[in-house]
Design brief:
Blueprint (H helix, E strand, L loop, with lengths): L17 H8 L3 H7 L5 E5 L3 E7 L8 E6 L2 E16 L2 E16 L10 E5 L2 E7 L13
Length: about 140
């Protein structure tokens, strides 16, 4: 039997404020994902390679850093921007700071030295070639 949760909006308190809705819905499945800044990633596995596409809109190549540690690929993107506008007695200053970080774990059968990375139109594309797995070594008892 499958459990289907019932969401009762309104209920006893039909006039909830915007703040109450935010607090009550913060950890619900749908709204929690909307509140998190997550790098959208597609991973496709083929016979000889993995293809990874990560959406990084508004970032440039110089904002992106990738590294491989053991069997983990770490993708980081950082951006800091300040805009200031002055006209007479009017001054407007806007600041933006954002970052993404995503860690992908792969098997031992990945060729880390031949990873191909391209960045175009806000999409980071990676081709990660696979290597042949080492045969299992049987140990005989003497």
């Amino acid at each position: 039997m499958k459990y289907v949760p019932i969401r009762r909006d309104g209920g006893f308190y039909p006039r909830m404020t915007l703040f109450d809705n935010f607090v009550n819905n913060f950890f619900n499945d749908e709204s929690f994902e909307d509140n998190q800044r997550m790098m959208a990633i597609d991973i496709q596995e083929e016979d000889d390679k993995f293809i990874v596409e990560a959406n990084l809109p508004g970032f440039t190549k110089k904002n992106i850093k990738m590294s491989v540690n053991n069997n983990e690929l770490i993708i980081e993107a950082n951006k800091e921007e300040t805009k200031e506008e002055k006209k007479g007695s009017y001054c407007r200053c806007e600041r933006y700071k954002g970052n993404y970080r995503r860690t992908l774990s792969f098997s031992n059968h990945v060729d880390k030295d031949k990873i191909d990375a391209k960045f175009k139109d806000g999409v980071l594309s990676l081709v990660i070639p696979k290597t042949a797995p080492e045969p299992i070594k049987e140990i005989t008892i003497g």
